[in-house]
Design goal:
By secondary structure, the chain is α/β, with parallel strands linked by helices. The chain folds into two domains: about 120 residues, ATPase, nucleotide binding domain (Nucleotidyltransferase, domain 5); about 100 residues, Nucleotidyltransferase, domain 5, CATH 3.30.420.40. Helices cover about 30% and strands about 25% of the residues. The strands form four sheets. Strands 1, 2, 3, 4, 5 and 8 form a six-stranded mixed sheet that branches. A five-stranded mixed sheet has the order 11-10-9-14-15. The chain starts with 5 loop residues before the first strand and ends with a helix. Bound molecules: beta-D-glucopyranose. This is Polyphosphate glucokinase.
C-alpha cells in the first residue's frame, strides 16, 4: 500500500464514461481503464446508471470522484455546453451517490480535474505561480492552479474574443468541422491565447485534450507570449484528477 493510497476516478465525456483505480503516489492507473459508452441521450439518470455499472465492473466499494463537462458548484451542475441540457440544475453529487448506494462522491469540472492531475504529475508539477491548463476537444476547458491550489470553474472556453466564443473559434472540433490545417488552426489558437494571457498572465499554459498528442504539429506554430507545454497524462488526466479530488476533499 502506498503512502497516499489509492482512489477511484471517473471521467464523463461525450463518447465514454471512463474510470479506474489511481495510485496517488505516482498518478498512474493500477489497471487498464474501464470504459462504457456514454448513453444517448446523456441524461442525468442514464449517465448515473452507467457510472454505477462501471463502478460495479471495477469491483470498487469506496468513495468515488467524478468529472462532468459542466460548471459544478456545491455538487450541482450549473451549465451544459456540450452535454444534455437536462444536467443544468441537477444535484449531481446526490444523484451519483444514490446510484452508488449512498457512498461518498465528489463531482467537479472535467478540465479542473485534468488541471489537478497535470499540476501534480505532469511537466508543470515543479512550477510555482499561476499555471493554466486548456483542454482542446469538442469544447475548450480550462483550469487555473495557483501553487497547486485549484481555482475552479474558470470556463475560459466561453470567453468572447472578436465576437466569438473561444471554443467556437479554436476547439479541436472546429478544426475538424472546418477542415483547417494545423497552421490555420494554430493561428486561431494563438489569437485565443493572446487574449487569455493578456488578462490572466499565467506563467505557463499546459495544452491538453486529444489533439495534444500531435503537439509537434501545432505548438511550435503558436505566436503567443506564454510558454505552452503539452499535457503529459493524455487520456487519463480526468480520471486521475477525479481520484485526487475525492482523496483530497476537493468539492467545488
Ligand atoms: C464546458 C466546460 C468544459 C469544457 C471541456 C466547455 O464547453 O463549458 O465546462 O470543461 O467544455 O469539456
Amino acid at each position: 500500500m502506498s503512502a497516499r493510497g489509492h482512489a477511484f476516478g471517473i471521467d464523463i465525456g461525450g463518447s465514454g464514461v471512463k474510470g479506474a483505480v489511481v495510485d496517488l503516489d505516482t498518478g498512474l492507473l493500477t489497471h487498464e481503464r474501464l470504459k462504457i459508452a456514454t448513453p444517448r441521450p446523456a441524461t442525468p439518470e442514464a449517465v448515473a446508471a452507467a457510472v454505477a455499472e462501471l463502478v460495479a465492473l471495477a469491483g470498487w466499494e469506496g468513495p468515488v470522484g467524478i468529472t462532468l463537462p459542466c460548471v459544478v458548484l456545491d455538487g450541482h451542475a450549473r451549465t451544459a455546453a456540450n452535454i444534455d441540457p437536462a444536467w443544468i440544475g441537477t444535484d449531481a453529487r446526490a444523484l451519483f451517490s444514490a446510484a452508488l448506494g449512498g457512498r461518498t462522491v465528489t463531482v467537479l469540472n472535467d478540465a479542473d480535474a485534468a488541471g489537478l492531475a497535470e499540476d501534480s504529475y505532469g511537466t508543470a508539477r515543479d512550477l510555482n505561480g499561476l499555471t493554466l491548463l486548456l483542454t482542446f476537444g469538442t469544447g475548450i476547458g480550462s483550469a487555473f492552479l495557483y501553487n497547486g491550489t485549484l481555482v475552479p470553474n474558470s470556463e475560459l472556453g466561453h470567453l468572447v474574443i472578436e465576437g466569438v466564443e473561444a471554443e467556437h473559434m479554436a476547439a479541436a472540433s472546429i478544426k475538424d468541422r472546418d477542415g483547417l490545417t494545423y497552421p490555420e488552426w494554430a493561428q486561431r489558437v494563438s489569437t485565443a491565447l493572446i487574449h487569455i494571457e493578456n488578462l490572466f498572465w499565467p506563467k505557463v499554459i499546459v495544452a491538453g485534450g486529444g489533439i495534444s498528442r500531435d503537439h509537434e504539429q501545432w505548438i511550435p506554430l503558436l505566436t503567443n507570449r506564454t510558454p505552452v507545454i503539452p499535457a503529459v497524462l493524455k487520456n487519463t488526466a480526468g480520471i486521475v484528477g477525479a481520484a485526487m479530488a475525492i482523496a483530497g476533499g476537493i468539492a467545488p
